[in-house]
Design a protein that fits this description.
The complex is a heterodimer of chains A (about 500) and B (about 160). Chain A has about 500 residues and is α/β, with parallel strands linked by helices. Helices cover about 40% and strands about 15% of the residues of chain A. In chain B, about 45% of the residues lie in helices and about 10% in strands. A five-stranded mixed beta sheet of chain B has the order 2-3-1-4-5, with helices on one face. The chains are: A alpha/beta (about 500), B alpha+beta (about 160).
Chain lengths: ~500, ~160
């Protein structure tokens, strides 16, 4: 009987040597003996165990990690092919508490299937949602998404169904689905994992969106820093087209829908939706003044659904299992599940998908196991470079939209970055301003000029020059950015700066 | 830009760029796609490519120049044989990316946005490679590396230097 071994092709696993491991396994299991098939899956999201090698056994998939190519001979000697004991063996992967305690809806197949195998996807429930959508009226699809309570997972948390309804209501022949895969926030990698680990789910979600609003063309705006996701997506699109899931006649319905991948070019601002549309049109990624909303006048002037990867990839679950199923997860106005990305200085980092409401403390200690350096946690940043820094006194905050906004923070795209007690928060505040200056599109003055002045003011504070006056000036400058900027870049850069001032003020007042 | 390309693109290069640009004529909003294609083929976007692309796509030179200079990814000068991108974003900072960057600069003897004298390596900053649970992250060409220690960085440079 053929033995199946899984070695991830996820970029994170590759960054730790997964290709070398796969090569060593291939060469050492070749020849007489049992036949071995190596599947290149996505990552399960347990990055401290990557490269995580799994072998299919009668007792389920047994894992070994982190594996290097040098470990392969001893693993095979220990009976890897039968799930044998070895110092790297972690047992049945599905039973690891880190994974078993999660509620994986959007990430249900990531790390489990071969990402570009249509058979794998379909046998794990893939395209059930699209098939159901094909039997529904557009308004009924939109209603299902609205009832699920799904909100945009890119960061803005706008109700997805409401956005779709606006596009559906526009009576024009040409509309677009634009997927925002410009995952630029530090500490986030959920989009990348999905695109590399289960790309068909994103394509299915986009096709459903197309059916719902009457769009026939979709674009995935992918950041150029993700070459692995680029290759996987393009391969998946080819496979889906060849099998009739995309193209002129989706599953014989007579309705067309197709998808192209467009690459960004290293501009963080292009994750902002109107800037992304400008970039998709081949222009400088300068933000547009709203109104009009992209749902009314978006890509090439046509009504456009702009949604993040995770949002669109969650839609097939909703169509397959129903709005009620999805909506039963979560808390308050935060319905469903949230793929949290646990990153930075953390012992067990990775992808934790749970219903909204997990507290930061549970996340950082139960899942994360504290810092990687073994020192105490001092600060966490939630929601990317424009997210607030929280002190340990706020770790009992649940991770949902309302609770975080209650303490002046935002969930963003669900990235949580951990810092130990060696962090200099004045330096982090300076970095926030510096990053804003570097990435500002230049269209509005508070962001373009204010960010550079922000760096200078923080430098003077750190040097002790007129410190109290400059601290007051920094607060004023933050208010100007917050209230006067056109988009979230200038408008939210004050979050990390102000929270650093509020919770870690001593770092700004160090003796020179 | 601090140094101009070694030589102006000759007629052959201009012709190559014109042909590349024309293959995207039917594509909606083609300029970024064209610039990517040019950079893949030539290694950077030579300033002399701007009027050629503008003419092929029926855009003004100013529009093309404006786009080329807006995006960090597009280079105006030839890169080294390997481009090393070191992540400077928050998650990597929490794992001492600043120390790694300082080490890289002294190991290579160049600063950010510079190329080694032998043309082997260019060093660029990047703000997030999406490998934030395996910080600090480095990308060499299109190959991603995680949990890069100074020692690992030296090994990679030695290995890549031989292949470059």
């Amino acid at each position: 009987m053929t033995i199946t071994i899984y070695v991830p092709r996820d970029a994170g696993a590759l960054s730790l040597g997964a290709d070398d491991v796969a090569r060593a396994l291939t060469s050492r299991t070749r020849g007489p003996g049992r036949e071995v098939r190596i599947v290149r899956n996505g990552s399960r999201g347990l990055y401290w165990l990557e490269p995580l090698v799994e072998v299919a056994t009668a007792a389920g998939r047994v894992g070994y990690g982190p594996v290097t190519a040098a470990d392969v001979p001893s693993l095979l000697e220990a009976g890897l092919l039968d799930g044998g004991a070895h110092r790297l063996c972690v047992g049945p992967v599905d039973e690891l508490p880190w994974l078993a305690s999660q509620q994986r809806l959007t990430f249900q197949r990531v790390g489990i299937i071969d990402p570009v195998s249509l058979d794998d996807y379909v046998s794990h429930g893939g395209f059930d949602g699209l098939r159901r959508a094909l039997e529904m009226a557009p308004a009924a699809i939109v209603q299902e998404v609205t009832a699920s309570g799904l909100r945009g997972r890119g960061g803005a948390a706008f109700p997805t169904g409401v956005k779709w309804k606006t596009v559906l209501d526009q009576r024009v022949p040409t509309k677009y689905i634009a997927c925002n895969a410009d995952e630029g926030d530090s500490g986030t990698f959920a989009d990348r994992m999905l695109m590399e680990g289960d790309p068909f789910m994103l394509l299915e979600g986009m096709a459903i969106a197309g059916l719902a609003v009457g769009a026939t063309q979709g674009y995935i705006y992918l950041r150029v820093e993700y070459p692995h996701a680029d290759r996987t997506l393009r391969e998946a699109i080819e496979v889906a087209r060849a099998a009739g899931y995309l193209g002129a006649d989706v599953l014989g319905s007579g309705r067309p829908f197709d998808i192209d991948v467009r690459l960004g070019a290293g501009a963080y601002i292009c994750g902002e939706e109107t800037s992304m549309l400008e970039s998709l049109e081949g222009r400088r990624g300068e933000v547009r003044v709203r109104p009009p909303l992209p749902a009314i006048k978006g890509l090439f002037g046509a009504p456009t659904v702009v949604n993040n990867v995770v949002t669109l990839a969650t839609v097939p679950v909703i169509l397959q299992r129903g709005a009620t199923f999805y909506e039963q997860y979560g808390t308050g106005q935060s319905r469903g599940s949230l793929p949290i990305q646990l990153a930075g200085n953390v012992r067990r980092g990775g992808l934790v998908e749970r219903a909204f409401g997990l507290t930061l403390r549970e996340l950082l200690y139960d899942y994360g196991g504290g810092t990687a350096t073994g020192r105490p946690i001092r600060a966490v940043q939630i929601g990317g470079p424009l997210g607030a820094y929280l002190p340990v006194s706020q770790l009992d905050t649940p991770l949902d939209y309302e609770s975080l906004s209650g303490i002046g923070a935002l969930l963003g795209h669900g990235g949580v970055v951990v810092f130990d007690d060696t962090v200099d928060m004045a330096a982090m505040a300076r970095h926030a301003m510096e990053f804003c200056a570097l990435e500002s599109c230049g269209k509005c003055t508070p962001c373009r000029i204010g960010s550079t002045r922000g760096v200078e003011v923080i430098d003077r504070i750190r040097l002790g020059i007129d410190r109290e006056r400059n601290l007051a000036l920094l607060e004023q400058l933050c208010d100007t950015l917050l209230n006067g900027s056109l988009c979230g870049l200038g408008g939210m850069t004050p979050y990390p700066v102000k929270s650093a001032l509020q919770h870690f003020g001593a770092d700004f007042r160090r003796p020179i | 830009m601090k140094n101009t390309p070694a030589r102006a693109p000759d007629a052959e290069l201009r012709e190559r760029i014109r042909k590349l640009a024309e293959t995207f004529r039917g594509t909606p909003g083609p300029l970024l796609e064209v610039l990517h294609a040019v950079q893949r083929a030539v290694g950077y976007v030579p300033p002399a490519a701007v009027p050629v692309i503008a003419e092929a796509l029926n855009l003004s030179r100013a529009e093309v120049h404006g786009v080329v200079t807006f995006y960090h990814h597009f280079r105006h000068t030839p890169p080294g044989r390997r481009v090393i991108r070191i992540c400077r974003a928050e998650a990597c900072q929490s794992m001492n990316a600043a120390g790694l960057l300082a080490h890289a600069q002294s190991r290579l003897g160049i600063g950010l946005h510079e190329t080694t004298a032998d043309g082997a390596f260019s060093l660029e900053p990047v703000y997030c490679l999406g490998n934030c649970a395996c910080s600090p992250a480095v990308m060499i060409g299109e190959e991603l590396h995680g949990r890069v220690t100074p020692q690992r960085f030296d090994e990679l440079v030695t290995r890549e230097g031989q292949g470059a």
